[in-house]
Amino acid sequence: MASVASPVIFKEFCPLYYLLNAIPTKIQRGFRSIVVYLTALDTNGDYIAVGSSIGMLYLYCRHINQMKKYNFEGRCESITFVKLLSCFDDLVAVGTASGRVAVFQLVSSLPGRNKQLRRFDVSGIHKSSITALAWSPNGMKLFSGDDKGKIVYSALDLDQGICNSSLVLEEPSSIVQLDYNQKVLLVSTLQRTLLFYTEEKSVNQVGTQP
Q1: Which is higher by pLDDT, 128 or 118?
Q2: Which GO terms describe its cellular component (predicted)?
Q3: pTM for this one?
Q4: Domains annotated on the chain, with CATH
């Protein structure tokens, strides 16, 4: 008996003007007018996160149609990567061109959820542009990779407000992709793809050719 094919749903794709209109195309800094470029993007069922060249993160809540803005303190630099996570709390990790990484724990109106915006910084390890970020499903682990091949593991304790970071792997070429599941970190660089087993701290290359 032939299986019944699921119905095909046609959707129309169009620019998200409601989102783009909430982000300025230029900002004024003293006497200078600076063009704002959109540099990073991530989405989930709750949010659309957009990074910019002026160091501002624009976070659009899809449920209440509201845009919020978050930024790094200190000097303004381009955001190169953003990664959202919805677990018990809503989290967004942000990486910049100079290697700064920050985690924002978002405010939720739901009972028992986080009521105050908090930020955690991964500082002093990355010295170059962040090219990849990956969360564990429970939000307790964050992996960050940069264009010099460094991969940093950050352990987050959201209840205590603590973030401890350490260098776990260093590759000879830029990190282009990270994904984490079940104590295994998938790493893709410009030269190879590998599996990093976080408990054993061992590496298994995928394939034999560069």
Answers
A1: 128
A2: cytoplasm
A3: 0.87
A4: 40-175 (2.130.10.10)
